[in-house]
Amino acid sequence: MKGKYYLGLLLLYVVGVSFLKSVDWLLALWLLSWLLSWRMMLKSIKATIFFNLSVTLGYLIASWWQGHEFLTYISMFNLRVMDISFAVFYLFGRINLLEAFSFSRSLTFLLVATISQIESFKKSYEDFILGFKSRTVKRLGEMQKRQFISSMLYFFLQKSLHNSKERTLALKARGFFD
Q: What pLDDT score does 178 carry?
């Protein structure tokens, strides 16, 4: 039951942080997040660093080109992303997702289907890596690494297409859509 409350709390937090326009409040939430769990905050930073840097760089170039002030907006945007991503990592690590989404049979079914696909792909990836390590004795060149990665990507693409067709048929059979 507490999973539903945490999920509702997370949704309220995301909406609330999205409407905050004060860099001071966003910075205070960010510092509070560091105090709450610095390890989770580092995980959040690692997960969003590429996104934040690419958006920031793009906005800086556009602002410079057009002559707009950018420091406040960039600070607000990056702090907002960090606050929300921290809250998601922090709460999703503490709730049972199946319990949180148990209010809807359809959402529970979709969550189970998603988790099973993630676990299936994770197992396949681990098998690929173990097979790759067991078949190599010496250090591989760039060409062999690229061939391995491309064949692995091709496998996952084919597996995704096959799984999506199968799941679409299963969802149609259960009446989720026509």
A: 66
Instruction: Name the CA radius of gyration of the chain, rounded.
Output: 22
d(CA 13, CA 36): 16
Do both 94 and 8 map to the same domain?
A: yes
Residues 76 and 142 in one domain: no
Name the residue range of residue 66's domain: 2-98
CA 168 – CA 172 distance, rounded (Å): 6
pTM over 0.70: no
Domain count within the chain: 2
Provide the pLDDT confidence category of residue 80 given band limits of 50, 70 and 90: very high
pLDDT at residue 55 greater than cutoff 90 = no
Whether 19 and 93 share a structural domain:
yes
Q: What residues contact 4, with CB distance under 8 A and at least 6 apart?
A: 99, 100, 102, 103
Domain shared by 93 and 108, yes or no:
no
Quote the CA–CA distance of 111 and 97 in Å, as a whole number. Answer: 8
Sign for the CA dihedral angle at 93, 99, 101, 106 comes to positive
Question: What pLDDT, in 10s, does the model give residues 120-174?
Answer: 999 999 998 888 888 877 787 888 888 888 999 999 999 989 988 888 888 788 7
Assign 3-class secondary structure to 25-44.
HHHHHHHHHHHHCHHHHHHH
